[in-house]
Amino acid sequence: MESMTGFGKASFQIDSFKVTVYIKSVNSKYLDLSLKLPKRYTFLEEKIRKLIIEHVSRGKVEVVIKHTGIPAEGREVFLDLQTALNLKQALETLKETLDFEEVLTFSDFLRFREYLMLEDKEEEVDKLWEEVYPPLKEALEQLKASRLKEGMYLKEVLKKHLEDLKKQITEIETLKPQVIQENTEKLRLRLQKFAEEIGVRDLDENRFYQELVYLLDKIDFTEELNRLKVHLKHFEETLEEDFPGKKLDFLCQEMFREINTLSNKAQSSAISLVAVRIKDLIEKLREQVQNIA
């Protein structure tokens, strides 16, 4: 199981030229990639994205690639000779027109650079990939290790919350017979009082129990309790999957819905207190689940 939080860094040295890759990831609903590349590696964006997707399933991932020094092949120099000739002629014409006595020197001419351009030498994509791939792959491996380590910690935290949750569910099961008995008596007295108020002296016992069963069925929380236990078991099993984040989040929602319905049906202050504790634990589960890929 992986966390979505992690970091990786790696460098690749070629003589005096060095390429460094930084990768960090944080929580996100989906896989969200952000690349910051130097001009030299712009054409590698698609290959870089593809490699990241192979290693990362989910999270907001930021990749920064930097290089220092100058590649062994250096930079290319482009000379616009015609522009240089035109510039020289223009300067000489200006000198003669304004009647300057000073000699026109090469230093004066060098103040104008329009005819001289320095550009990075265009490289083949495969060669550039050989520079980027080693540090990128190593940084991704570090990121993966970091996310797995954090994932192991989160798994233990979740298991602790699950154990606490089981104890609370067991308490509801213990309270259930008493609550059913109390609710039965409350309903019996309520129906009896209602019969007396409307002047019914002889209450049909069969009809009374039919109504009682109907009302008890409306407040019976057995089904919700069973579903809550099933969701809990499914949660434990899902923890062992590789990328369980979205499924665990869904199960948290379902467990919260079941305990909410159960609490409303039970009409018991004792169960309401336990339900509050269960809701708090489910919320703690969900907070941690948001960090899981």
TrEMBL record:
UniProt keyword Repeat, yes or no: no
Entry GO MF terms: hydrolase activity; RNA endonuclease activity
Residue ranges the record marks as coiled coil: 155-182
Domain Endoribonuclease YicC-like N-terminal, chain residue ranges per copy: 1-155
Cofactor: a divalent metal cation
Signal peptide: none
Keywords: Coiled coil, Endonuclease, Hydrolase, Nuclease
Domain Endoribonuclease YicC-like C-terminal: 172-292
InterPro entries (UniProt xref): YicC-like_C, YicC-like_N, YicC/YloC-like
Pfam families documented for this protein: YicC-like_C, YicC-like_N
Family to which the UniProt record says this protein belongs: Belongs to the YicC/YloC family.
Listed name of the protein: YicC family protein
Species this protein is from: Thermodesulfobacterium commune DSM 2178
